[in-house]
Task: structure prediction
Amino acid sequence: MKREIVISRACPVCESTDFTGLFQKQVLQLVRCADCRTVYVNPVEESLTTGEFYDRLATPFYLSPAKLESDYSPVRFQRELKLFRRFCRSGPVLDVGCSTGAFLFQLKTMFPTDYDVTGVDVVGPALDYAEKQGVHVLRESYLKKDFQGRTFAAVTFWAVLEHLLNPRAFLAKTVSLLSPGGFCFVLVPNFQSLAVRLLGAKYRYIFPQHLNYFTGSTLKRLVEAYPEFQIVYAGSTHFNPIVILQDFRGRGQFVSDEERAELLKRTTGYKQNPLLKPFKLALAGVEALLGGLNLADNIVLVLQKTGR
Result:
């Protein structure tokens, strides 16, 4: 049996090597940076820093019928598309960690003449699916890719930075790829969300794929390392009470890929059911309240390249 290589790491935000232990969830050790308070996994398995882990995950999760049906549903990226259109109305778009290409597919479908879309990822099976849907993809590491002077009006990181060993390097590369005035969109799970406060380590999204656990303040500190970026929008979004109910009853084990995919499918079905409109309106009100308190499930930032 191949023995997994384990990598020790510095803080992904301030690069300090001074930390204290926070808690352990099975094999996952979460620590808190003593300098900037960022929570991150240390050490990490090497396969999580390459495409190897995600290649193994592709069939049971990313390419499962339930996950694909959810991702390619018109309701899947409603919040992201609304925010994206608010700031970027046209131009070339690069989606980093594009996976099966669902966001770019929705963007191109809804606004076919406004954007020239490209996705980049290292997960071969997921990219195969994206290409079958007509999404142009690059099959290589974002950090190693030579874009040969090409620039973009927008670069998106939808639920990506939490997976990265070195998110600082990804943002530094993005600075060089954005046109002056271009936008970078970042969405990550919120480690100060209501769900985390209620569930702690039992929360399903504290799991091996997530190497970094941001709060609003630590995410902003990460971005502030790059003076070329100006934060033009900061918010908290998404709320799924079903996750809280299920995880509260659970034993704190990692939730299976199949179970996560099935919940996504069910949630998508609820959103599309016209009989549940009163419930959806009430849920939207709760989400708005939590968002105003920075307690919703995700943090989102929109960064603009200022040209400095």
Summary: The chain has a mean pLDDT of 92. Residues 50-305 form a domain with the Rossmann fold fold (CATH 3.40.50.150).
